[in-house]
Amino acid sequence: MSVLHVSLFGRFNARCGERVLTGLDALKVQELFCYLLLYRDRPHPRETLANLLWSESPGPRSKRYLRKALWRLQAGLEPAVTGSSDPLLLLESGWVQFNPAANLWLDVATFEQAFSMAQGVPGTELDAPCAQVLRQAVELYQGDLLEGWYQDWCLHERQRLQHLYLAMLDKLMGYCEARQEYETGLVYGVRILRYDCARERTHRRLMRLHYLAGDRTAALRQYERCVSALEREVSVKPSSRTIKLCEQIRADQLETTATLAPADLPRHLGPLRAILVDLQKQVQQTIQAIDAAMSDRE
To answer: Is the model's pLDDT at 82 over the cut of 90?
Structure first.
C-alpha cells in the first residue's frame, strides 16, 4: 500500500505513490481536509466544523454541506486506502477526526517534529545530526502555508509555522558561524530577511558572517541595509549593540576566534563536554544581562 503524501507548504498537493489525487479539487473539500490534517491531534465536533467552514449558511444547511464534503473527501482519498484496514477518517455521529494511525507523510508534521527536536537548544550547541534534521526541515518550507488561502484559521497557522521556520533558520545561522560555515550561514540569513527585512538580530549575524568570511566591505554594507530597513519598516535607529558591532568591523577589531561547540567534542571527553556546556550557559547569561542593562539605558 502506498503512503499518502500531502504537502501544505506553498500550494496544496496530495498524492498516493506517483498518482496525484484529483478527487480533492473542490475548494471546500480541500479546506476540510487541510483543517483536519493541521489539527490532527484531536477529534472535532461536526457542528463546529460546519459552522467554521460554512459560516455564511444557516445551521441545518451547513451540516448538510459538511456531510456532502465528507462523502466527497472519502471518495477522493479512496486510492490511498485501497488494501488497508485502517480508514483515513474516523467518523462518528457527532465527531470527525483524521486517523492518527493512517499511513501518511505530511510536510507540516515533519517540519514541526524537527523544530521540537531543537527547541530550547541554541544554534551553537546543536550537534551535527540535529543540524542536519533542521537543514532538511527548512527545505520543506517551499512557501507559506497554503498560499492563496485567507481563512482566519489558516492565517493563524501560517503565522505560527512561519515563526518556526525563521527560528530554525536562526539556529542554523548560529550553527554555521560556530563551525566556520560562513557562506552557508549567509544563505540562511538572507532567507530570514525575505520574510522580515527589519529583523535586526539577523542583520547583526549577517554582518558578523560577512566579516568572518573575509569581506569587511560586505559587512559594512549589511549595516547600511539594516539602517535603511529599520527606518523604512519601524521608523527606529539601530540599537547600540548593532552600532557597536559596526564600529568594531570598521576598525577591523572584531573577535574572530572560532569556538568549538560541546556537541563536536569526542564522546569520551564527556566531563569536558559538561564543563563547556556550563561555561557557555554562564557566558550567555552574562551577555543577556549586559544587553538588558544597555536596553534599560537606551
So the answer is: no
